[in-house]
Design a protein that fits this description.
flat; mainly beta; four-stranded mixed sheet; five-stranded antiparallel sheet
Amino acid sequence: MAPIGLLLSLLCAALVVVPAAATPVWCFAQLEEEGGGGACANLLGDEPVPLADCCLNPAYGYKHHPHGHCHTCRQGAWGPWGPWSGCSVTCGEGTERRGRSRDAPGNDRRAWQLRACHLPCCPEAGGWSPWSSWGECSATCGAGMQGRSRACADPAPRCGGSCSPGGARETRVCQGRTPTCPGEEGGRGGGEGGEGKDEGRGEGEGGGAKEGLKAGGGGGGASQSSPSPAVGGGWGAWGPWGNCGGTCEGAGSKPRRSRSRRCDSPPPSTDPPGPACPGNAIDAQPCPALPPCPVDGAWGAWSATAPCPVTCGLGAVTWRRACDAPPPQHRGRPCHGNSVKQGVCGPHGPCPAVPHWGPWGDWTPCERPLWGAQSCEPTVGQQRRTRECVGRKPGGPPCLVEGGVATIQIRACYNIHHCLLAGNWSDWSPWGLCTPPCGASPTRSRIRECQPIYPAYPLTVTPVGSATPVNVTFWGSARPPLPPPGGATPAPGGESAMSARAALPPPGGGLTLLVTSRPLPPGAPPNRPNLPLPPPNKDPATDAAPNSWGGWPP
């Protein structure tokens, strides 16, 4: 049983995971959603913090990676849409997507949006044309060259493509009409030569014997003398001072220099041994007149510049440090790194639920107080929309007022609902995604808008009792004139278009859509399911209607 117990222990240890609350995240004090892409702003500190500490304040956001997707700390609320991803292809038609997430039970925690993207066409290879006939030989006699050619045009390459490897021209050796050219024939001759011999003789004679000198021996007698006295050694002159052991004088031991001398004036006798020179052979002293050594700077301790600005959750605080431990001196190197950093203070406990504004409701019909709806006239009316402060508790703080607007928003308007107005078609939108993404006969669609030509009513008015003018918005869905005979607009390439009066838009829509569809081109890969593009909410004060038809795209 012991091996089984050990195996279970190891398995349990392998299954240990970091609790979700302790997951390190990058914490942000603000969420933004502008221009179709979401972003976390105001990073708290330069280091990750535990998720539980970051989300003590439900108004904060966080990222699992510094460049990852932005999440909201508010339970059950969707975070902002992330930026659109890059196109799924490097050329031709592909898809791009963006996502958002929320902290909610179940599987409904991620949402995605897809849209088509169009890049320059993909390279298509061309084909070589057949080889031409061989040309004439470059020589009329003897050997020459002849060539032939072909073109990369069967078919021609497109979008930067090319033909298969190979050249557009080739050559070969050819023979002229006559095998040899005049004057190319000749004889061959040979020469003979004699041989001579050089003979030489040399004689050398020599002989003789050399006699060596005969050495004779002799005899003699040795004389005796008294022994020499011992001679003591004497020092020679000191040599020059050597190099210093350093180039500067610092806080430690000072660099020194040395010199030497020899015991050779005279040297001590050896037979009999004489006394050695008294004293030292080496002399040393501190190096004179050295400059002070450079002192590199070092950072002092971090200190907060202000108290923590929050009383709950995490807050951001600025930390500073000085290069004074020690400061750089005598051309020493300065401190490396930053003297300021953003740090995190807290946590100080959970923050109360932060109330926030819910989405705006629909605008009410454009009416004139006490007169009701007056459409198709240059009479300025009013309309309103409301929203709720979500999460506010009794006695708790209210939602923040944004731009002077709180629960109710009122605007001036002209009522053009069901009014007959001439219009112009806008340009076509890009082609959408293919439907179905797989299977036979996929189709895709695009739209254009019938933008009404608004009446020349004043676009600003000055309310009674106020000196500040306000903008006036056209509200409602105008009706275009009668459609052309047959009820359909012709479209090239076998496409069909629905009549602009096939359906009457609901109030507040303001636009009529014309939708066309066509099959997927042969050879093009299917992509993701199509997502309809909603019509924009046009305001004549900021959006001008076109003055003519947009051209049919290819």
